[in-house]
Amino acid sequence: MILHRRGSTRITTRAMTRVVSAVAADALGVRPSQVSVRLADADGGLDLTVRAPIRVVHLDDSTLDAAADSSADGTILDRTDRAQHQIRGTVADLTGAEIAGVVVRLTGARIRRPDRVD
Amino acid sequence: MTNLTPDTTLPGSTAILPDGTSAPVATPEGGSRGKTVINDAVVAKIAGLALREVAGVHALGGGAARALGVIRDAIKNTDHTQGVSVEVGEGQVAVDVTLVAAYPAPLQQVAEDARTAIIEAIESLVGLHVTEVNVTITDVHLPAETDDTDEADKADEAGDL
Question: Does B12 touch chain A (CB under 8 A)?
């Protein structure tokens, strides 16, 4: 809860969870409904645990996408690391919450061709 | 409505009684020319209407209020005070707002914009001083939720390891 000059702003757990799942889904290339989020308090900061699958391209297509800046860019570990940073930054920007830590647990892989157009 | 101003020291303004009504306007002859009463529901409605203009606000009210709101909208009986509760005191008013924000709007910014819109609307239209506006963001609406097609689901299932 953040106090303002004239009144306070409260963001419920549900709203916070939704934002985190949307941001994580975007970062990992899956749908928000596939992401499960756990929020915890860490000395006043917010500790996020995100459990989600990650989108990977089909092995046959990997040469096609090797040069492109897509979900095939880098190893799964690299991409998860980038997603973890993206979640931390974007969630902090959108909610104004102080993020203490972000844990990303991959629960599986979804094989899908990347969208040709956005 | 026109006679009610928050600052009772201004010449020509009327004193506001503890029950939120204004004192009768005295005529030069000493007689009364009536008093102005602004109901709480009016203040809540003005706050609710002001919120409709705020960017990043998807809907007003919590789960139950919104479910009921859909039915009211369908029978053309929209509740403009949905998600808004007001407490009117002596020339002052405190407002509590419950809303659903639209993703990806920054939540603090949405709350601040909602607060500013309500304060401006009530202070200019009603003339009461707004002491505080407490904003609760209950949920965030994700546009993808409604856009998700069955096709995407099927493609996903097929791709499962």
Answer: no
Query: According to the 3-state scheme, what is the secondary structure of A61-108?
Result: HHHHHCCCCCCCCCCHHHHHHHHHHHHHHHHHHHHCCCEEEEEEEEEE
CATH superfamily of B40-150: Cation efflux protein, cytoplasmic domain (3.30.70.1350)
> Quick one: tokens of B59?
């809907």
B1-36: burial string, b at 16+ Cβ within 10 Å, e else: eebbbbeeeeeebbebeeebbbebeeeeeeeeeeeb
- Check CB contact of A93 with chain B, cutoff 8 Å: yes
The Cα–Cα gap between A112 and A65 comes to 12
**pLDDT tens for each residue of B65-97:** 888 898 998 898 888 889 999 999 888 999 999
Residue indicated by tokens 């459990």: A51
- Tell me how far apart the alpha carbons of residues A73 and A81 are, in angstroms, rounded to a whole number: 12
Which chain A residues have a beta carbon less than 8 Å from that of B105?
A: 94
Locate B52 and state its tokens.
């409709």
Mean pLDDT by 10 residues, chain B (161 residues): 45 55 66 85 94 92 87 88 91 94 94 95 94 95 63 46 45
Show the tokens assigned to A105: 């647990």
ipTM of the complex: 0.78
**Cross-chain Cβ contact A108/B161 below 8 Å:** yes
The size of the A-B interface in CB pairs under 8 A is 94
User: Which option is the CATH number for A2-111: 3.30.1340, 3.30.300, 3.30.1300, 1.10.3470?
Assistant: 3.30.300
Domains of chain B by residue range: 1-37, 40-150
Residue A90 CB partners (closer than 8 Å, separation 6+): A23, A27
Is residue B107 within 8 Å of residue A19, measured between CB atoms? yes
